[in-house]
Amino acid sequence: MTNSQEPVDEPRSEAETPDEPGSSGSSGPSTEDTEPAASAASEPSESSGPPEPSESSQLRDRWRRALADLDNLRKRHTKELQREREAERARVCTDWLPVLDNLELALAHAEPDSGSVIQGVKAVRDQAVDILHGLGYPRDDETGVPFDPARHEVVTVVDDPGTEPGTVVQCLRPGYGTPGHQLRPMAAVVSKRQE
User: Fold this and answer.
1) Residue 194: what pLDDT?
2) Cα angle value 148/126/168 (rounded, 5°)
3) CA–CA distance, 143 with 186 (Å, rounded to integer)
4) For the whole model, what pTM was predicted?
């Protein structure tokens, strides 16, 4: 009877075999232990190598685009800054024009008097005109020149046979600036065209 029991004890089941994967024995490594080690060993070799040529060319293209965008932004900022400075200068000068006009009126009413007050007012007026000229808005009060709609604003038309038709005869209010860059045009009296 002992011979019949031995063959039953010798064969092992597949679950008990230590060499096969998935066995519960402690003598062999499991599948779970070997897979992370294999993937960890393969990852550094992929990331530590030099980048592929297509990847480096993409990075180079991105870098060039970023430089071009930065250069365009710098140019646009410079243009906008210049435009804002000119607009602010025009606003300040426009606010000063009524002061200058009042100085002109004071001088016109006090012309017979040649006292020191009048000389002082003239000096202040001349200083204001010089400041506007320095800011890019020269005074325009010239008479005897042909009428120019870019520089002059016609207030009235007179019949003056001694001048050419369409000539500025009198300046009623000086203008400041140049054509295309004016604070205001000169208010002028213009000679009538002959019919």
Assistant:
1) 63
2) 20
3) 10
4) 0.52
